[in-house]
Amino acid sequence: MSNIKISQKVLNQEEKITLDLLEMVEENSAITQRSLATELNVALGLANSYIKRCAKKGLIKVKQVPSNRYAYYLTPNGFAEKGRLTAEYLKQSFNFFRLARGQSDEALRDCINRGWNSVALIGKSDLTEITILSATELNVKLTGIVDAEASIDNIKYMNLPVVKTLSELDTVDALIITDMEKPQNTFNEIVQFFPFDQVLTLSLLGIKRQKRNTPTFIEAVSEKIG
Description:
Blueprint: H1 13-27, H2 33-40, H3 44-56, E1 60-65, E2 69-74, H4 76-113, E3 118-122, H5 126-138, E4 141-146, E5 155-157, E6 160-163, E7 174-177, H6 183-190, E8 199-200, H7 217-225
Parallel strand pairs: 3-4, 3-7, 4-6, 7-8
Antiparallel strand pairs: 1-2, 5-6
Helix pairs in contact: 1-4, 2-3, 4-5
């Protein structure tokens, strides 16, 4: 099975920001650039750059209103582009879900075959949620989620405890990497103190298992099947 890059699960960043901007302008033509920047989670200067870019492409129209403010309106081209980007986003999101669900199912079945009765997930992301759904259907016990960025003690995600370090969980037989921000770094750190062969990775994350020159779990399964 071929790998996909994480960024392919959704639109690339520029397209996603453009889609979000068009949606916000459609909802509120009087929105300020500062509010746009806050909602888009980008710097004010970058928000201004995207507005100018969309205006230059004919996606939005900018009008000056009293009090030296501006109003933004979607043009017919803007509505069409928003529809195209929305459709593409939904298509890619569905493809990602289908791929992630299949690979998480295979990883969890491998845990069952090896007699690993308690599994922890490393990282909180969309992939975490999908893996939890798979575990529920396959009746695999998940002991919790390790998320170094967790800022609150004793929190839960989908009824699973979220902890900062693996030592905070009970006995764990295996780990599945579900971090989508820095999966390779997470894997490299985990295998320093947890048995290498008991750390499972999904091909879609593009993790290189260099320590023992071992293929990712899904690749190994594919080779066996082939």
